[in-house]
Amino acid sequence: MRFLYLFLLPLLFSACVGEDILDDYVAPQIRLQNPVASIEEGTSYQFIAEFFNNVGQAEAVTPTWTSADPDILSFGTDGLANALAPGTTTITVAYQDEFGETASTSSNVEVGPSTVIVDEPTKRTGTARTTSTYVLRGDFELTQLPTGELKLAYGDDYTADTRLPGLYIYLTNNPNSNAGALELARVRVFSGAHEYIIPGVGLNDYSHVLYYCKPFSVKVGDGPIE
């Protein structure tokens, strides 16, 4: 029995490894968590941003907030915007990390008679695809449920290779690694429609669906969440 195990182990490993050599690096990014279409003149609005470092992990930082026209809207400290005069301006939040890389994002904001919050979408979509020599594909929808949970649903076009040992699905901000990723489940459906219910996660918390051969920490596929 021991001989059989030692014989099968490299076969299982090679089944996962494929031809990819992985690098954990991703470009750092910063996301505006509470965009607003309009701010009432004479009032303030507290913007919130979240920074993800070059391995896709959330990191507490103090970013820089700027307004293209500070006569219309100006920033105090820590993302507090002051609506000074009617008009439209572009706000930018940016952060430069210890390696000199800058992540930034911008949004147009109007100063007017009332504050108008941007309606957040309740659904995002994407397509899972293989990054290895094994079959993996399928369109998916990530939906915010009335209960606050998320539902990740695949359609009839989904298919995955049944030969993959220990295949797991994750949500992540770094499609190159499962380190720090949210593990959803071991994959037990390899063809057709199925879904996962995910508690305690926001719709915009993650950027990718990730498939990993967990026993050998080898990536099998991914799918950007649009």
From TrEMBL:
PROSITE patterns recorded for this chain? Answer: DM13, PROKAR_LIPOPROTEIN
DM13 domain residues are 126-226
Q: Name one Pfam family in it.
A: Big_2
Under the heading InterPro entries, the entry gives: Big_2 (IPR003343), DM13_domain (IPR019545), Invasin/intimin_cell_adhesion (IPR008964)
The superkingdom of the source organism is Bacteria
Name of the protein described by the UniProt record: Ig-like domain-containing protein
